[in-house]
Description:
Blueprint: H1 46-49, H2 94-100, E1 108-112, E2 134-138, H3 141-147, E3 154-158, H4 194-202, E4 207-212, H5 217-226, E5 230-233, H6 239-279, E6 291-297, E7 306-314, E8 320-330, H7 332-350, H8 355-369, E9 377-384, E10 390-396, E11 402-405, E12 408-412, E13 433-436, E14 441-446, E15 454-455, E16 460-461, H9 463-476, H10 481-496, E17 504-511
Parallel strand pairs: 1-2, 1-3, 3-4, 4-5
Antiparallel strand pairs: 6-17, 7-8, 8-9, 9-10, 10-13, 11-12, 11-14, 14-17, 15-16
Amino acid sequence: MPASVPRQRTLPAAESGQTHAASMNSGPAEGAPEAGTTAPHTAEHPAISTIGSATGSTANGSAEGDTCTETDIDIDIDTDTAHHTGKARTRITPDSAEATSTAPTNLTLLLIEDDPAGSPIVPELLDRGGRPIRVRTARNLTEAERLLTDDVHCILLDLALPAPGSRPANGGNGSSGANNSGGSGGDEGADELAVLKHVLELAPRHAVLALTASGDAERGAEAVRVGAQDYLFRDELDSRLLSRAIRYAVERKRSDSAERRLAEGRLHARENRRLERGLLPTPLLDGSPLHFAARYRPGRSRALLGGDFYDVVRTPDGTVHAMIGDVCGHGPDEAALGVELRIAWRALTLAGLSGDELLGTLQQVLEHERADDEIFATLCTVDISPDGREAGLCLAGHPSPLFARPGHPARLLPYDDNGPALGLLSDTRWPRTQVELGTEWSLMLYTDGLIEGRVGDSGERLGQDGMVGMVRRQLTDGLRGEELLRAAVNEVRDLNGGELADDVAVLLLDRVPQP
């Protein structure tokens, strides 16, 4: 079940991320920095130095994070960020933006200024390929929001425009504020950059150029620090300068967006490692002769773990308790609930509970902690006697373990007394089945992701019978321990023709007599 998402206000298509494929001429990239992210304005850009440069605060597109180690959990980071090497930022210049632009789509500029009937402030513009840059003009922010469609690439904002709710100076239309060096065209004491902040909030995924008076470089630099990609002087505009500045701003925004996605990918990786420690813990088997191996693979290369979990502990009397479970659904809420159930199982087991009493208590935990009454969890528990020759099995809507021993074909343990999944029925019981193991054996616990994959073009599921036959063959080939689990998961994935739709967790316990 997917995690709940906070309700958001309705936005134009361009702001909601419905944009074309990423290219310099294809519109804003998804995942752009939020309003307020600082983009530096430096003198290193030729087009910028001719209009008065200012140094702004550098935005750290990504925080230094831990290096992601190789595990079975695949972290999917947008391919647009593959070229990043972990540096704080990537420098993009107008020339490099021109060199990397190959898309045939024309650029579109949205001009927001309050005197469109006067002398045009935007000259005729051409992109790198000689095609005209389309210009749309909005007289106010309300009209700008209507014109802000998904084919707009850059916004040119006149900082003299009155802020929302403000009263223009001298009772005019606000354009006279362009001649005020301090930019105080609104009410006294008002935020000089309120209109820019409003536009950044309205269009967080678009490149923004701030337009100010010639003698107001300080205000332009402050606009860059607030979040604009660059600032330009109103009376120094020409076609070549503005065209290059637009292309630079669009590419700068794409670079910031890519670095933000990289930072988010690193954050996901750290979150995954924390969840992994909760879902897939280190077993407590000190003093036990049993050998332990486990493997986990998320379905469809999801960035977050699903709800599969397992644990193994040895209690002071020498009994080894093993458990594997699966919370229905996928996402952080299900993963967190899986962590809670695993920790509760370990605590209750170490406290001496087992079988029906333990499962009943776990059901109470699930009912109190789940976000929805329809969420349930399947569980399989096994308690192995201190001498390792017999075990007790409890199933709560979960597939039965696979059991193998020398001289006998691998088979499923009895599942006739399989009880309901946790969270489905109240006042229920989970029978405990006694199983004879012998002196040398292997016991494999797994989640349903291992048996629900498809087989070839037929579309049929592998099922438990198919899984048993596969493991029998692999055991005959001499595979044991981690090699057996690796081969089983890989073959199931290959039979499916790619990544499995569901997560897969597999746990293996082996008992080999000491010489």
